[in-house]
Structure formats: structure tokens, C-alpha cells
């Protein structure tokens, strides 16, 4: 704002920032060096340990608490040598495992310019230097035809009491939140609450405060430049499992089945494009099991596999996208040893106690084939690889002289607003729900399982004016996994009203089916708004072919054109 609508920064103001930039650079180096000890990463060159000690000693000087007036030639030399060390670079790549300022690489890459004799901070330097707000700072801007006064306040807990009562006549709140806070934790908080929860708590205070009852709220979700890298290294669902919602019911797998059965299949280049996602899924599965071992207090049978687990947990192996371009020999060896460990097998046997993709065993059992040099995904691989639907995907098929258009949409709560209004002319809805959801929790609502979440969406579909003339095809999916899940947790533990035997798979399936059908308003149960329930296994081509033939016989008579799975 000061650059665009104020007078910018004067030479004197820029000069005053130099000691703070110097201090930030030394802080960054010391932070990385400290993390190397925590992560047991050695320096590539032993002399750099001495350089690290030099900078640490300089940084501990009380006179340098907020700034360093000048970077001496010895300090500059130390910073350059340390930043070029391969051990430091490895530690920087693992920065998600500790707290490091976002501007670290920017300042360290520019150390030669910044340490120059006539250095003057440019606009990029000013934007990146970190000056904590520990008081109330007011700035006036002329934004024709308005005169704006922007007040910057301290966001830290200890600062809020100084300002929150000062703004009973404020007209607008600009609330900044970082998109990457979901993976950042409050260092001194024993509850291990992440910064996003802290930020949400402050946002709630502002929304509830009488001081801001008449103020409009402008919410800025910041750091979009850093978010893709962060989300690639730690998917949002690892912190907020509800992000998956009922998104893993099997919709995309069903669409892939239709493409294999009634479309033109997958071309060689399409198959090759799936390889990085398969690699990523394998790595995610191993990481998930290793995290669960800690949570469930299960030890590795072979202590060597603890080191392999640390190797695979390193963000060194993460690419910028939600994929991994190659599985190195070291990674393959680590995966093999970990998967053969009896402790890991025990943890896998308890997978009902945590969230693990259904395809985990399939991919890990086939690691030798998948890691081979000339690997090309087969149909089973294609059906099992998980690529979350985050937009609207459309496929056309010729089926019994009728052209079908199947539209696959994102099942997550965050995606529904993008599609639910798009289908006011739809003739049929395919609703896929997983039979396993009765035993899967929505993590922020411990009293509610995913089946209740799915039933809620089904109710929305049934009542929506957009689908008032549509027939509903209900696919209750994952029949292959249901018997095992039922044996581990009988359905009466969740729904006491179930009166069948604990091991009666057929009765349990019918119970779940009737939970969905009971949502159909009585006035519509015997009208033209037909509901067609089917039990499916979306990774079984034979099952899908038979089910779809049955659907065709009952529904194509309605001159079906659009098919829309949810």
C-alpha cells in the first residue's frame, strides 16, 4: 500500500532497514544450522561447522538483539560457505520439518549484493524483510477520492489486548491469514495447535466482537506463491482429513471403468502420465503407515527400518506437484524393507484405526513391478491410482446407439459450490457412496461418521430443484472391502438399531441401502422420480459391466443424455 498509494520509502527509511536485513540473514543461517543438529544432518565440509559457530556467537550478542549494523567480511565469507554446503542444502529442502522464514532462500541467494559496500534495499528486499509488529502503526493514504487510514496491529496473542478495544468505530477490517499456516505449529504450545487454528480463533474473536459489529470484513488469504510447494510436500488431508470428505467413494474409478469398457481406453501417453502419481501414492502410503506406527506405539521389528522411514519422510523426495518423477533405487530398497517389517504388517492390520487408502496393499505388494525401468501402468493400476477430482471432468461415450455424457465432479465440500448449480437440465444422477463410510469419522465432528456426511449430501440432491426431474442411480461401492470392515467393526456398534447378525454381510448391505432410500420423501417414492440402488465394486470391471447393463435396461428408456456421478 505504501508503494502503490503512499510515497514509497525514502532513502533514509531504506537505509534504516539494512541492519534488520543483516540480522535476518544471520538468524536464517543459525536457524538452518540448528535444524541440522535436530535432523542429524552433517555438514558436507567440516570447516563449515566452525563458520556456523562463528555466526552463532555473533548472533548471541545482546547488542545484536534486533539488528546487526554491518556484516563483516568474515561473516560474509562464513555465510557464503555455509549456504553452498550440500548438507545445508539438504536441510533447507527439509524446511517443512522446522520453522524457517519464507524469505530465507531469497536473502541467502542475494548475499553478495546485500553485502556490497553501497548496498541500498530495493523494493523486493523491503517486501521480504520481517519486522514484527509489536505496537500500533498508523498510515494515511490518499486513494482518490478517499482518504484512508490503515492501522497495523500486532497479531501475536500478547499484543491483542493493546488494540482490540481501540476500534469501536472502525469501518473495515482487513484480516490477513497465510495459506501455509495449516502446516505450521506454535512453538511454545504444548497442545501442538497449528497456526491456522490460531488464526481461525482470532478471526472468530473479530467476528464476535461488539467493537467490529458494524465493520465489513476483508479476508486476504496470503502466500499463494508458496502454497503449491507446501501442499505438494504435505497434502491438506494430512492435517484436515475431512478435506477428503466423501470424495473417495469411487466416482473417478467408476469413470475410468467406463472409459475402459465403453470408451477408447487409455492411450500410452495417458498411462505414462499416471506413473508419477502412482509413485507419489506409494510414498504417501508408506509415510501414512509410519506415522500411524508412532500414533499406535508400534515398534519396527528391525531397527534399520526406522532409518529407512526417516529417509522416505524427507521432503527431499517431493516434487513441486502432487507427484514424484522417479523412484530412486534407495527409495525402492527402503519401501521393500519397510513393507516386509513385521511391525509394519501389524500396523497395516490395524488400518481401521487410521485413514489409509484402499489401494495400499495392492501397490506395495507390486513394488518390484512398478519400480522396474520399463514400467507401464496396467488397467488395475489405472483403476487404483488416486487422483483427487478438484474440478469438473467430462467424458462422452457411445452406448447402445445412445450418446452418454458422464460428468465427474469433486465430492469435497470445498468443490460442491462449483457444480451443484450447473445441472438444472440433468436427467439422471449417479450417486456413489462407500459402504465403508459407517466406520470412518469426520475428524472435526467426532460424533459424525462419513456415512452421515454422505447421507447429508444425498438428501441435498433429493431436495434440490436442480434435480427435481432426474432419476437417481445409487451405487453403494466397495463391496470387495466391506466384509473385512464388517468383521473388524460390526455395524450395530455404530447403528444400534441394526438387528442382524454381526457377520451378516447381506443384512448389513441392505441396512445401509435402506438408510439412503429412507431419505426419499414418501410423496415421491411411487412417482416418476425413480431410485435405482446397486451394489458395486468400482475396481472390478466385470461387476461394473453387469451393473451398467442393468442400469441401461431400466434408465435408457427415459432417453438418458446426461449422467452425473457425485
Question: What's the gist of this structure?
Answer:
The protein has about 575 residues and is α/β, with parallel strands linked by helices. Helices cover about 45% and strands about 15% of the residues. The chain has a six-stranded mixed sheet with strand order 5-6-12-7-10-11, sandwiched between helices. A two-stranded antiparallel sheet has the order 1-2. The protein has a two-stranded parallel sheet with strand order 3-4.
Radius of gyration (CA) equals 28 Å
Helix content: 40-55%
CATH topology of the largest domain: Rossmann fold
Strand % is 5-15%
The rough form would be described as globular
Specify the number of helices.
Answer: 24
Q: State the end-to-end CA separation.
A: 44 Å
Largest sheet: 6 strands, mixed
Q: From the helix content, strand content and strand pairing, which structural class follows?
A: alpha/beta
CATH class of the largest domain: Alpha Beta
What count of structural domains? 4
What CATH architecture label of the largest domain applies?
3-Layer(aba) Sandwich
CATH evolutionary superfamily of the largest domain: P-loop containing nucleotide triphosphate hydrolases
The strands making up the biggest β-sheet line up spatially as: 5-6-12-7-10-11
- Give start-end ranges of low-pLDDT stretches: 559-566
Amino acid at each position: 500500500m505504501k508503494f502503490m498509494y503512499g510515497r514509497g520509502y525514502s532513502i533514509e527509511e531504506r537505509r534504516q532497514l539494512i541492519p534488520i536485513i543483516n540480522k535476518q540473514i544471520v538468524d536464517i543461517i543459525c536457524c538452518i544450522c540448528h535444524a541440522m543438529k535436530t535432523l542429524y544432518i552433517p555438514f558436507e565440509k567440516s570447516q563449515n561447522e566452525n563458520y556456523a559457530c562463528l555466526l552463532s556467537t555473533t548472533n548471541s550478542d545482546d547488542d545484536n538483539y534486533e539488528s546487526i549494523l554491518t556484516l563483516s567480511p568474515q561473516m560474509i565469507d562464513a555465510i557464503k560457505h555455509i549456504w553452498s554446503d550440500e548438507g545445508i542444502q539438504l536441510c533447507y529442502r527439509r524446511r517443512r520439518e522446522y520453522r524457517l522464514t519464507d524469505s530465507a532462500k531469497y536473502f541467502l541467494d542475494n548475499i553478495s549484493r546485500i553485502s556490497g559496500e553501497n548496498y541500498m534495499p530495493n523494493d523486493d528486499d523491503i517486501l521480504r524483510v520481517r519486522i514484527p509488529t509489536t505496537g500500533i502503526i498508523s498510515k494515511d493514504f490518499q486513494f482518490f477520492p478517499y482518504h484512508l487510514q490503515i492501522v497495523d496491529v500486532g497479531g501475536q496473542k500478547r499484543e491483542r489486548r493493546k488494540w482490540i478495544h481501540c476500534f469501536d468505530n472502525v469501518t473495515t477490517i482487513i484480516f490477513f491469514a497465510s495459506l501455509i499456516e495449516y502446516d505450521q505449529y506454535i512453538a511454545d504450545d504444548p497442545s501442538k495447535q497449528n497456526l491456522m487454528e490460531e488464526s481461525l480463533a482470532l478471526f472468530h474473536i473479530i467476528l464476535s466482537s461488539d467493537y467490529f459489529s458494524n465493520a465489513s470484513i476483508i479476508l486476504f488469504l496470503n502466500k499463494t506463491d508458496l502454497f503449491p510447494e507446501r501442499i505438494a510436500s504435505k497434502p491438506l488431508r494430512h492435517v484436515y482429513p475431512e478435506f477428503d470428505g466423501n470424495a473417495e467413494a469411487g466416482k473417478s474409478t467408476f469413470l475410468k471403468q467406463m472409459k475402459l469398457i465403453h470408451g477408447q481406453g487409455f492411450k500410452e501417453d495417458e498411462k505414462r502420465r499416471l506413473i508419477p502419481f502412482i509413485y507419489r501414492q506409494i510414498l504417501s502410503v508408506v509415510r501414512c503407515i509410519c506415522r500411524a506406527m508412532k500414533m499406535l506405539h508400534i515398534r519396527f521389528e528391525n531397527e534399520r527400518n526406522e532409518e529407512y522411514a526417516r529417509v522416505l519422510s524427507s521432503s527431499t523426495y517431493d516434487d513441486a506437484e502432487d507427484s514424484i518423477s522417479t523412484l530412486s533405487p534407495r527409495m525402492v530398497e527402503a519401501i521393500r524393507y519397510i513393507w516386509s517389517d513385521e511391525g509394519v504388517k501389524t500396523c497395516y492390520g490395524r488400518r481401521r484405526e487410521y485413514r489409509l487408502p484402499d489401494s495400499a496393499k495392492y501397490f506395495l505388494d507390486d513394488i518390484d513391478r512398478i519400480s522396474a525401468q520399463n514400467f507401464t501402468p496396467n488397467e488395475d493400476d489405472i483403476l487404483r491410482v488416486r487422483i483427487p477430482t478438484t474440478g469438473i471432468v467430462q467424458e462422452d461415450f457411445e452406448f447402445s446407439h445412445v450418446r452418454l455424457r458422464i460428468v465427474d465432479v469433486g465430492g469435497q465440500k470445498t468443490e460442491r459450490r462449483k457444480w451443484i448449480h450447473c445441472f438444472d437440465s440433468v436427467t439422471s444422477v449417479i450417486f456413489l457412496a462407500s459402504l465403508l463410510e459407517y466406520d470412518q469419522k469426520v475428524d472435526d465432528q467426532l460424533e459424525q461418521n462419513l456415512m452421515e456426511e454422505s447421507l447429508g449430501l444425498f438428501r441435498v440432491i433429493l431436495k434440490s430443484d436442480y434435480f427435481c426431474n432426474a432419476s437417481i442411480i445409487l451405487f453403494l461401492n466397495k463391496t470387495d472391502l466391506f466384509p473385512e470392515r464388517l468383521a473388524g467393526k460390526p455395524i450395530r456398534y455404530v447403528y444400534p438399531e441394526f438387528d442382524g447378525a454381526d457377520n451378516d454381510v447381506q443384512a448389513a448391505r441392505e441396512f445401509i441401502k435402506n438408510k439412503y432410500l429412507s431419505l426419499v420423501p414418501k410423496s415421491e417414492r411411487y412417482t416418476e422420480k425413480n431410485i435405482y440402488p446397486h451394489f458395486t465394486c468400482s475396481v472390478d470391471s466385470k461387476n461394473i459391466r453387469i451393473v451398467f447393463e442393468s442400469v441401461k435396461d431400466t434408465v435408457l428408456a427415459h432417453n438418458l443424455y446426461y449422467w452425473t456421478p457425485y
